Amino acid sequence: NSALLKALDFKWDEAVKEWMSILETEKDPYLRACLEYNIGLGCFMMGNRELALQWLTQSSVEYSSDMTTALISRVQKTE
Fold first, then answer.
1. pLDDT digit string (tens) for 9-44?
2. DSSP string, 28-69
3. 19 CB neighbour count, 10 Å cutoff
């Protein structure tokens, strides 16, 4: 919840670091995909579209979802 609160406060850099830390030990593909999505969203919000696409693509590989597909499309349109 700490990372979520940081994201809600627009402290994306701090939130991304926390999600990356959690990702290091997470084994469940669905939870990994959620973390990777959050990291991708954080990268996008900080203006790094290329890195956002890398994380979102990895999220789709782990566990495909309409939400991830939609964000990938949005990130690509803003390039």
1. 999 999 999 999 999 999 999 999 999 999 999 999
2. -HHHHHHHHHHHHHHHHHTT-HHHHHHHHHHHHHHS--HHHH
3. 24
Please give the Cα distance from 63 to 54 (Å, whole number): 14
CA distance 69 to 57: 9
End-to-end CA, the chain: 31
Residue type, 5: L
Fill in the DSSP letter of residue 4. Answer: H
CB 71 within 8 A of CB 33: no
